[in-house]
Amino acid sequence: MLSRIAEALFWIGRYIERAECTARILDVYLQLLVEDPVIDEEATCRSILAAMGMAAEEDADIASILRLLLHDPQSPTSIAYALESARENARRSREVVSTEVWEALNTTYNAILAGELERMRPADAFRLTRERTNMVSALADHTQSHDDGWQFIVLGRHLERIDMTARMILAATYATGSAGSWSVTLRACGAAHAFTRTYRASESERAAAEFLLMDRLFPRSVAHSLAVAGGCLEVLDPRQRRLGFGGDAGRIIGQAQARLDLMSLSDLFSDIPAQMEQLQLMCASATEAVAKRYFEGAVAPEWLGGAL
Amino acid sequence: MSQLFDGYAPRPSTYDEMFDGGTARSGYLGVRRQMERLAPEEMSARSDYLSSTYLDQGVTFDIGGEERPFPLDIVPRLIEGDTWSTVESGVRQRVRALEAFLADIYGEGQVFNDRVIPRGVVTSSPHFLRVAKGIQPPGQVRVHVAGIDLIRDAAGTFRVLEDNVRIPSGVSYVMTNRRAMSAALPEVFAHHRIRPVSQYPNKLLSALRACAPSGVTDPTVVVLTPGAYNAAYFEHTLLARLMGVRLVEGRDLIAQAGRVMVRTTHGLHPVDVIYRRVDDDFLDPVHFRRDSMLGVPGLLNAARAGNVTIANAVGNGVADDKLVYTYVPDLIRYYLGQEPILPNVDTWRLEDPQHRAEVLDRLDELVVKPVDGAGGKGIVIGPRATRQQLDELRARLLADPRGWIAQPVVQLSTVPTFINGRMAPRHVDLRPFAINDGDKVWVLPGGLTRVALPEGELIVNSSQGGGSKDTWVLAGDNYQSQGHTGGHAEPEPAAEGSVLHPALRARHTARSDGAPDTPSSPGMSQTLGGMTQTLGTTAPSTGGAL
């Protein structure tokens, strides 16, 4: 696998997952703003922006959230930006991604170019995003050979998923301990149904956090994503099982897994924001290690592809 | 039945490929009948389908970094089997002559000593590269892929307009057009026996493998692209994907100690054959443009050492020079001892004083072209130029006569084209593609028909608002479709005579009686575990009957 292609595939995985998670978050929070008459619109909007790493603007309202996170292709946190970037990375690896993956990405991009995301009702735009991103992921899983290239897509997908889950949990803690906030987070993670089936209706903050962070069977939990990402790295470099070295992505992921496994729930709960920030940092340094190990062979002065 | 073609008026003194006066030519009767069974709205819907499917699939070319879908017209262009045989032999003849010419001028230069073409014409070409002198390409092939541009004059005769033996592009649209058209017009398709175009990637890969450096038994082939902003990037990705080889950019390659390697996630791997789609000037900053980031430093030294095959070879551009073009009929006579099968368009050489005087005298009725122009750039069509443009042109011709040729305005043939819901004549040209594996020259049945979409426009180039048409070579009675031969066997026209049973056909074509390499007596290729074996006749490299 060419280093340059590996990098493009990794970022397709990340951008697709990013678009999907952003759509879930926005969908759930915007419903909340509409349904709950006492909720402070501006504070909630600010907390969403903060969780996404955006400095809140003067007047944080629904319109500005939709622009920054949904349809403005210039905004690096928007769904439009993520989908365009995924498509651009696919264009640069077009002989490797399957034609079906390419067409799904390309038609989505054409819709964005035509201004669909802005024109649609937001709920429809989120559904379109969820459907298309899930379609791309499924097509990647079902029409591509599960070779190294596919491992890079899956690795990117799960590192992004960990990062986004951490951001959603962070957003819940920002929302000033309102009783409903964890249930909102569960919904935003697409986990409400699975959680209820696992824990019945006995919802508690503790159970929700435990489920999102530690459940090994739920595919969007941090523990599950860490396991998948670690598995990809093992396939990509089988030697790693015997010889680890500092800064190596496998080791970073392994450490995060061990922490999560060994930490008591009360320790975890004592400072959720710090723990979530640590998870995000972990994703960044794992990405850096992967880039160093696999991508830099091809880094050229004029690299214009996926933004880091 | 709709009256789709009613009111269609061919342009005066122009050959219309579908209509002879008011009646459709025999080859087109089926197309006319089938299309007229569709309501006009249905035709529009099918035509819209063609545009949207290209948009969805990203079948595009880039102009100034902007991706644009390549317009595909719904009316196919037909070429009957016997007409095609002539074109095919003519293209093959041309490629063989140019191949011999390039080998000669980068070697001994016998053609100069024999006074067939003045040495100065070649050495003054900006595309004649001294650095390529003495490089012996593996397999003795320089022109691995050729695209010979043809037009049809007022009498319907195919003439060569120019040769492209550097990095001709457009073949990807031949393949995508066929796929899109069979989906858009299945009923019209079903009524014709059309020679398939899908073997191209397979033929290209075998030719590239056949020309690998000596001693390499399982060569690694890559396609080298300048990157996603190149106009033909779509084509590069398609060819790499269909051949199943890596598409690389210059920065993915590294030349070390006379070998070329590709950087992968598992380290460096040797590369044996580079199908490059990067211009000479950008290929190796050591020898050419030092500011180039698109190429690979040291690539040329690796080629000189015989460790890597560059396809097409460096320095081929001299054969594309439009002044050299005027000598090609002589080159065919000189190298092959044959008369040219496809005539040139009459051409004046501006550097010849007599020609120059005549051209300057008739500037307002001729087409004047720069000798190294591509993409229709710099062409001045006399009858359409203003007084001032002609005066400017006159000054430029006098300043640099070597840089220009002049031709009469040839009315390119027209084919009905579906424009705004009705049929209108539009000018077309044809670029057949030939692949040379060092043994045989194979010509893809058909090629790219480019169509000038603005009314009366004679420049069909895609960068000048051109579109394309699917080009159907009709299989004659002696042609067997792919279905009969099955498996991986390559469809080729059967030898003269009636349809043969597949087993008989194999025996028949596997004869080795030295039959000449004519379109009607092919060898048959079989793909065996990735290796292509050619069974049967081999053509004499030069001098034999074609």
UniProtKB/TrEMBL annotation, chain A:
It holds the Pfam family Alpha-E. The lineage of its organism: Bacteria, Bacillati, Actinomycetota, Actinomycetes, Micrococcales. It comes from the Bacteria. Residues 1-295 form the DUF403 domain. This is Putative alpha-E superfamily protein. InterPro entries: ATP-dep_Glu-Cys_Ligase-2, DUF403.
From TrEMBL, chain B:
Residues 462-495, 508-546 are annotated as: Disordered. Residues 76-452 form the Circularly permuted ATP-grasp type domain. Residues 526-538 have a biased composition (Low complexity). It holds the Pfam family CP_ATPgrasp_2. SUPFAM superfamilies: Glutathione synthetase ATP-binding domain-like. Gene3D superfamilies: 3.30.1490.270, 3.40.50.11290. This is Putative circularly permuted ATP-grasp superfamily protein. It comes from Rudaeicoccus suwonensis. The lineage of its organism: Bacteria, Bacillati, Actinomycetota, Actinomycetes, Micrococcales.
